[in-house]
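Pair request: fold both.
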Amino acid sequence: MNNDDDKDPCHSTRVGSILSLLAGAAKEAADQLGFFPSAGASARDALADLLGVLVAAMALSLWNRLHRSRPDSGHTRRVLPV
């Protein structure tokens, strides 16, 4: 089993995005079933959830690229013996 997935920021972003979309979908379903005092599920709320996830994923991607490109970030690369 490879533990490199734990350190991959893209993997974390994907998992977080999927969980966020699932939470938004569950909230919309609960709205439609009347569990929350609201007007019910709406396409506008679902679109706002999707847009929020996309903006957050793009911000994380940009942060990771900028953070990785700095030479003084203090990160070291592992060198495997050949």
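--- second member of the pair ---
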Amino acid sequence: MNRDFIIAVILVLSSCFLYETNAFNKTGSCHYFSDPHLEPFPAQPGMTANMYICRPNCTEILIRNDFLEIYVTSRSTAGKYFIVEYTMVFFPTKKYSSPCVITANVDNPSISSLTCPSGSPADSFGSGPQRHYFHLTKNIKVDIEDAGTFYNILITQSFHLIAQSTGICINWDCELEYSSAKRKKRQIQSSDSIISQVCSIFINSAQGKITDGMNKNLIEAQRVACEYDLNTTRDPRCARHVVTSILRDSVNKYENDDNFQDRLLEIDALTEETIKQANQDANNLIQQSGFVCQSDTDQNQCLQLIDDTK
């Protein structure tokens, strides 16, 4: 047999093997957060997905496959489209006979169920606003942030499972979010400069906690999302997710380490500490600027103060 032909066959088989290995081991993330923005799963490892603005006012399937299903409900209120309720199900497997069903509703927190029972295929950890869920046999992780009046959801799973999934993380009907330079022009508001400064407070606070390497694309995307959210909602609490996202991303490189859960818990504590200080700094800026919303204020020309109790 021709030697070159044999070498070519070996190379093709090797490539297929490496692809299959990467499909099982490499992961991609889908992010659904704030007003809400959707960053769907990337097409393949190493790629970055575009970000989209969604306008749902209903219950949708965020993701569905043989192991995980997440429903989210968004509600339109005064131009805001926050995620106000979700149901997440880790389905039973041959080894684990009980499902894990997680539910939460911002209007009725007392009926929320946030932990997986014994005998289910998933486990959870975390406290306060940050909760983390992971499948015991499959490469699936879900991070959920309770921002008080809405939820932010991050799903990470193998590309092998991404290829088997459906839902808006895979197929979406949302508008492409423009970069700051390309966004559709609108009338400039007098509070725009303050909005930019508020977002910078949260971004700089998070960056100051990172000691090695920053994801510049993520930071730019979060800045665009932050300024959009504050323009549409006038609620600076949307900016807290900037801190959560940047600090959470900083530990992704450790996801295969044995102490990854400990690192996540450390980041959770650091995130809340950083957000608390950024809230104070943002409130001081808003008060000094004279753009605090009052009952008789044009809501397009002001910003609400951040209430940490909500």
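Observation on the second member. Residues 186-310 form one domain.
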